[in-house]
Design brief:
The protein is mainly alpha-helical and about 180 residues long. The chain contains eight helices and no strands. It has a domain of about 120 residues: Cytochrome Bc1 Complex, Chain D, domain 2.
Length: about 180
């Protein structure tokens, strides 16, 4: 009777012992590439990016010759206006005139100035938004770190469309409204 008890106890313990062996986790720990792990393999030469905007620039000076890949449509300008009012108006003013309570203290420039509108390229404006300047913080992704106030690449280009194609119209409308009052 005693031998039967030992055999029965051993038989009951076998599944538990089998689960402790290394082969019980082979499917989970097999060689594979997990998402977001390791270095990204570079794209083959002459490959065509799909749904992306090239933005590999080192600093704002390198961004100067970049062309805006997003057409300045009314929809893009409206989206840029919304983002401008959220992120930029605190320092540059609602119409970009540099007339906010903060702008005098920090030296924010007037974006509706003829120098900005005529001489600064869209790439330079995008680079300034991305990397910041002497006083202005970066709203891009500097050195691979992402902050809570960062705009993605497309959003930055929408802001550029607004600054270059919609800001002057909004400033003129605000000036006419203020003069009429």
């Amino acid at each position: 009777m005693r031998l039967k008890s030992v055999i029965a106890a051993a038989a009951l313990m076998m599944p538990a012992a089998a689960m402790a062996w290394p082969w019980s986790t082979d499917m989970m720990n097999q060689p594979n590439i997990k998402p977001q792990e390791g270095e990204m393999i570079p794209f083959p030469e002459r490959s065509i990016p799909v749904g992306g905007i090239p933005t590999q620039v080192a600093d704002r000076e390198a961004a100067k010759p970049m062309k805006n890949p997003i057409e300045a449509t009314p929809k893009s300008i409206a989206q840029g206006r919304t983002l401008f009012k959220i992120y930029c108006a605190a320092c540059h003013g609602l119409t970009g005139a540099g007339d906010s309570p903060v702008s005098g203290k920090i030296g924010a420039i007037a974006l509706n100035d003829s120098y900005v509108q005529e001489n600064l390229t869209e790439g330079w404006v995008w680079g300034t938004i991305t990397f910041g300047s002497y006083v202005m913080p970066a709203y891009g992704v500097p050195q691979g770190k992402r902050g809570s106030n960062d705009l993605n690449v497309e959003e930055r280009w929408h802001v550029v469309n607004y600054v270059k194609h919609g800001l002057m119209k909004d400033h003129a409308a605000a000036t006419r409204t203020a003069a009429a009052e």
